[in-house]
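[#protein-structures] MJ: dropping Peptidase M19 here for a structure pass
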Amino acid sequence: MKHVVGTLAACLALACAVPLSAAEVSERAARLHQRLLVLDTHLDTPANFARPGWSILDDHTAQRDFAQVDLPRMRKGGLDGGFWVVYTGQGDRTPEANRRARDHGLVRLAQIREMVAAHPDQFELALRADDARRIADAGKRVVYISMENATPLASDPSLLSAYHALGLRMLGITHMRNNEFGDSSNAPPEWNGLSPAGKALVAEANRLGIVLDASHASDQVFDQLLELSRAPFVLSHSGADALYDNPRNIDDARLRRLAENGGVIHVNAYGGYLVPLEQSEERKRELAELDARYGNDGSLTAAQITQKLRERDAIDARHPVSNATFDDYMNHVLHLVRLLGPEHVGIGADWDGGGGVAGLEDVGALPRITQALLDAGYSEEDIANIWSGNVLRVLGEAERVAKETAGAG
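AK: finished. C-alpha cells for Peptidase M19:
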C-alpha cells in the first residue's frame, strides 16, 4: 500500500495529467463497460474509513483529497467493486509490534464490515465467487475482503480462520519487508522464500478457500507457492519485469508458470513500477520531511490535507519530475495479455495506495482501459475475463480445493 511517497503519488499523477476527454471512450466501449462486471483486486480505500469526516458516499477528488475511490466515482467509472484491503505496515517483529499489528488488522477488518453495514443499499459483502454478479445485478457494489501483509497473523496464525469467517478471501504474504511468513521482494532474503510458518499458512489458506496473493513477495516465495499451493494463486497488483526491471515486477518465465497453474496477474498502476521515474535527492529528502511532519495520512483533517497538498505542490514546483502515463500502464497490460492470454490477466491498480498515472487518475477513468482493449482487438469475452472473470475463476478454484479438503478430512 504505502510506497516510498505513499498515497501522495496519486496527487503527483494529477499534477502532470491531461483531463480525460469523453471523446477518448467510444459509445460502444462505454456501453460495454457498463454491462461488464468490473472488479479491481487491490483497493486500499479502507485506509480512509477512519479519517475524520470521510465518507465513501461523498465525491472526493484527488485535487482536494487523497481518495481515488468513492461511490460517485465508482458509478462514473463503472467499478462494481473488488477486493478491499486490510493493510498493515511491517513493524520490527517484536512481540509488542506483532500485537499492535494483530489489533490493527482486526480494527481495519471491522471498519470494512462497518462501512458495508452502514450502507446496505449500496454495498454488500461477497463471500463466494458467484456472489459478485448477484450483488452487482442488485445495483450494489461488491466488497470482497483481502489482506496485504500477513503480519497481523504473526502473533497467532490461527486467527486466519476467524478472518475467513468474517469475510477474508485473499491473503498477501508480505509487504515491503520480510515478516514471520516469508521474504519480501524488496528485502534481502531471510527465509529463502517461505518460512516454516509461511508454508503452514499456505496450507491453511488452501483449507479455508482463501486465494493466495504473491504481490510484494520474493521470487522464491512465488516459486514455492507454485509447488505448495493446491489452488491457483494471483498477483493482486504487480507488473511486467520485461518492461521495467523492478523488484516488484515479475519476469515472463515465472508468469508463464503462473498461467500454466491457472493463476492471474492483475496489473498495478503505481507509476514507479511501470517506468523509471528519476527523482533528485533534494526532492526525496523534502518529500520524506513532508511525510514525517504530517504523519499518517489516515489521521489528517480536511484542513491538514489541503495544507499538505499545498506544500507538496511547492515541492513539485521546485523539483519537477516526470510521471508514468496511461500508455505506460497499457503497455504492461497488453504485454501481459499477449504473453499469457486474456484468461490470466486482470486489473489491480493499487487505488488509494499509490496507484494512478496521468490519464488514469482515479476509478472514474476506468472505461479508458476497456476502450484500449477494444482498440487492441480483444473480444468482449476477453475483456470480461480481464475485468472479473479471471479472478472469480481463481476464487472458485480455491473454494473447490477447500471443499475437497473438507471431504477428505
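MJ: nice. The chain has one domain: 8-277+322-408.
AK: one more thing. The CA atoms of residues 264 and 344 lie 4 Å apart.
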